[in-house]
TrEMBL record:
This is TECT2 protein. Residues 112-221 form the Tectonic-1-3 N-terminal domain. The gene is Tctn2. Belongs to the tectonic family. One of its GO terms (cellular component) is MKS complex.
Length: 658
């Protein structure tokens, strides 16, 4: 510790536990601490011990009672040197003279550096920060003491610097206020130094450097565009010409229309913009203390054509509270604070072409009390104007990102199939895990835990794991498009399966108890898709192939410290990967392009095939007429030079002069 107070915690019940503190000197000959016993008290020298008991943990506070000011002339009860105190403390927790726990503390405390003298009235001249930073060692924060990792601190002795010499602060904070410039001769060790560098380098001190510093002069202005706003258009006409897929939906105030969504880290972001034609269904955890209301439902939305539409809101009351209240810290009493909050919001956007025609919102309200945890649900769906249900998006037959992948079982009378991954709940066991459909364009990884006995037969274990993984894929085909017809086999692609290898238990494991090799614990689903066109500016995406394989692991029973429990755990996972390929195969390279790479313009800085590029129609830097005129003039000059360099031209010229 380096301060006058430190806190720690004693885990467990503190009933009948006696806490004490001891200042432990070290043996001068051996350098070891003296053995401590349970006969101490809560005060030792200048140290006090305070214990705040709790239900499952007790807070232990050690504090220093002496004065830490530097001594003035003829003063007592102060610190004579900057290093005021060096002590070794032992905090003991005993019950009936039996030591339960011990905490060792090394205290090295410096005196306070607050100024108590007379203040001079002389004005301090601050140098220009452009050329000379204020302070040559910014990491020197403590006066009269050595700051750890600050190698430019003059109070740090060579002995102290050896402790952190390899971990010094770098950059301007570590005192590198004038870094060596590139033209300095001592910088020759830099990478890619040219050969002529020693002849043109500069011999100079760092005080005479062209480096202007890390600071600059200049006026600062606050941005006029507030967060989540776009600048208004000054040109006459409508603000929007229509939405495209992925564009943020705008409000009447020229702000983003936001609904809580999950970020890449898994946390809920309350002010996330809603993207056009992108559905989502998220759940967010909150309590009464951190609950925040979203955008009001009277906000009007820009339809995309320049006009604004009002939301059609329907309010309902939640009847089954158990679907939303997931935990409660204590029983509800009459004194508990409760508030009427939003449990769920379901948005339905009716769209046509590039515009939004109508917005329907269903809001579920309920009472949330202090101590309860609420699972809020927010959904957004986009439905075509001609669609009567949530099954299809009007106009585009291809898949859209975030929509479930369509599957079918052509070997059954009921051809409806499913392609799912796990959605664990509770302890994450496979017995309690539910299914969630595979969403197009979203790579995912899920899994659950399978309980395995130590005497488990390896063949039965392989079969059980394979059955669990195959339960996710109740299909033989996957729809090429989102509107694939179950009656047309050409609308479907067959799932390519690579079944797991079935090994012999007696040969593979050698009859070892608690070890099973070749367990197919990982299911790999790879979906290959491509953009085959576009409908109203929205990409038309189709699935080309689906491949399913298994990855095996070696399961070994883990017993931990003791092997009293005969149950171990085997995690099994399912991963989904979407691979985008070109709709048409790329043009293969010719033999000339493979062998003569120096003529490949994509691999070299000099491109000889494009020598006459300015004379082609692809060059747009100048009008084509000017390029053609310059090209003809250049060709004429080359032709004249070739004629004049010929020997017969000089003979003809001499004969004409005679």
């Amino acid at each position: 510790m380096s301060g006058p107070r430190v806190n720690s915690f004693f885990l467990g019940s503190s009933s009948g536990v006696n806490f004490s503190i001891i200042v432990s000197p070290t043996d001068e000959e051996t350098g070891k601490l003296q053995l401590a016993n349970c006969s101490g008290s809560k005060r030792a020298g200048d140290w006090n011990l305070n214990v705040t008991p709790g239900m499952d943990a007790s807070k232990v506070t050690i504090s220093l009672t002496r004065n830490l000011q530097l001594c003035l002339p003829n003063a007592t009860d102060c610190c004579a040197t900057p290093l005021c105190l060096v002590d070794t403390l032992q905090v003991l927790a005993c019950r009936d003279s039996v030591m339960l726990a011990r905490l060792l503390i090394q205290a090295e405390i410096y005196a306070n550096s607050s100024f108590t003298g007379n203040v001079s009235e002389n004005a301090t001249i601050v140098p220009s920060q452009v050329f000379q930073p204020l302070g040559s060692c910014p990491c020197d924060l403590t006066a009269g003491a050595c700051d750890v990792r600050c190698c430019c601190d003059p109070e740090c002795t060579p002995g102290l610097k050896q402790l952190f010499n390899e971990s010094c602060f770098t950059g301007v904070f570590g005192g590198d206020v004038n870094p060596p410039f590139d033209q300095l001769c001592s910088s020759q060790t830099m990478e890619y130094t040219p050969d002529w560098f020693p002849f043109l380098c500069v011999q100079s001190s760092l005080n005479n450097t062209p480096f202007l510093g890390y600071f600059y002069h200049g006026s600062t202005s606050t941005p006029r565009v507030p967060p989540f706003k776009i600048p208004s258009q000054t040109s006459p006409g409508k603000l929007f010409t229509g939405y495209r897929q992925g564009d943020p939906i705008m409000t009447e105030e020229n702000e983003y229309f936001t609904v809580p969504q999950q970020s890449m880290a898994g946390q809920c972001v309350g002010n996330a913009p809603v993207a056009y034609l992108q559905n989502f269904d998220v759940k967010c955890l909150t309590d009464l203390a951190s609950y925040k209301e979203g955008l009001p439902h009277d906000v009007r939305i820009n339809s995309g054509a320049g006009d604004f539409i009002q939301q059609n809101v329907v309010y309902r009351t939640v009847t089954d509270m158990g679907k939303f209240i997931t935990a409660s810290e204590s029983l509800r009493t009459a004194e508990v604070l409760c508030q009427n909050v939003t449990f769920a919001e379901h948005y339905t956007f009716i769209w046509k072409d590039k515009n939004i025609e109508r917005i329907n919102v269903t809001v579920f309200l309920g009472s949330l009390c202090d101590g309860e945890i609420l699972t809020q649900r927010f959904t957004v769906k986009f439905l075509g104007l001609k669609s009567t249900n949530a099954a299809e998006l009007c106009g585009n037959p291809g898949y859209q990102v975030g929509k479930p992948v369509k599957a079918a079982n052509m070997n059954a009378s009921d051809t409806f199939g499913s392609l799912n991954i796990w959605q664990p709940a509770g302890r994450g066991l496979c017995t309690s895990a539910t299914y969630t459909p595979v969403l197009f364009g979203l790579d995912s990884l899920s899994g659950c835990i399978l309980e395995v006995d130590i005497n488990e037969d390896c063949s039965l274990l392989r079969g059980n794991v394979t059955e669990k993984l195959n339960s996710l894929i109740q299909a033989t085909h996957v729809g090429k498009r989102d509107n694939s017809s179950y009656s047309d086999l050409n609308d479907w692609v067959e799932i390519i399966r690579l079944d797991p290898f079935n090994s012999d238990t007696n040969v593979s494991s050698g009859n070892l108890k608690g070890i099973c090799p070749d367990i197919p614990a990982n299911l790999n689903i790879r979906i290959i898709f491509a953009d085959v066109g576009a409908v109203q500016g929205i990409p038309w995406q189709e699935i080309l192939a689906v491949h399913i394989s298994y990855s095996t692991v070696i399961w070994q029973f883990q017993c931990g410290l003791t092997c009293e429990n005969s149950i171990s755990f085997l995690p099994i996972t399912a991963s989904v990967q979407f691979i985008k390929v070109p709709a048409q195969p790329p043009i293969p390279m010719t033999r000339f392009q493979i062998n003569y790479t120096e003529f490949d313009c994509n691999r070299n800085d000099v491109c000889w095939p494009q020598l006459f590029y300015p004379l082609t129609r692809f060059y747009t830097g100048e009008p084509y007429s000017q390029c053609l005129a310059k090209g003809l003039l250049l060709a004429f000059l080359v032709l004249v030079a070739a004629i004049m360099s010929n020997p017969w031209f000089s003979k003809l010229w001499n004969s004409s002069l005679v």
